[in-house]
Design brief:
With 144 residues, the chain is of the alpha+beta class. The chain contains three helices and seven strands; from the N terminus they run H-E-E-E-E-E-E-E-H-H. The longest helix is centred in the first third of the chain and has 29 residues. It is elongated, with a radius of gyration of 19 Å. The chain starts with a helix and ends with a helix.
């Protein structure tokens, strides 16, 4: 009987943790952001896309997957090292996830390469955010 009670307590604690993590994630997603599809590269054609939200900060863009229980962001792109490599339209099986209104951009930063699917307005906001970053020269004299 003791073993059964211990297992029940462990099960209740795990259930409470997952319920709390789900609630926290829901609150984080409800704070807002820009809808996006993101995948890490390299990846097969049409595979690896994840739905979620991106948020712009002063120093980084963070991505929250819709289907994750992680307490923090799932990916982070550092603004100072982002390079936009290529822009394209959805191809082949990507049309199952996206419309022709979505533009896909390939970006690289110090940590890796990603593709981000954004609608036209969100793409304009992303490119403006990247292009308006402070230059390395202006940051050199600042004390942090």
């Amino acid at each position: 009987m003791r073993v059964g009670m211990v297992l029940l307590i462990i099960l209740v604690v795990l259930l409470a943790y997952f319920a709390g993590a789900s609630l926290y994630r829901l609150v984080m997603l409800r704070r807002g952001g820009t809808a996006a599809l993101v995948r890490t590269l390299p990846n097969g054609a049409g595979h690896g896309w994840r739905h979620g939200l991106i948020r712009y900060g002063e120093g980084a863009l963070v991505f929250f997957k819709l289907s994750s229980l992680r307490l923090g962001p799932d990916s982070r792109l550092h603004r100072s090292s982002i390079v936009v490599v290529e822009r394209r339209s959805p191809e082949g099986s990507e049309h199952d996830l996206m419309t022709d209104e979505v533009a896909i951009i390939e970006v690289r930063d110090a940590d890796g390469s990603y593709e981000i699917g954004l609608d036209r307005g969100a793409l304009t906001a992303f490119l403006s955010w990247v292009e308006s970053r402070p230059s390395g020269r202006s940051l050199r004299g600042r004390r942090r």
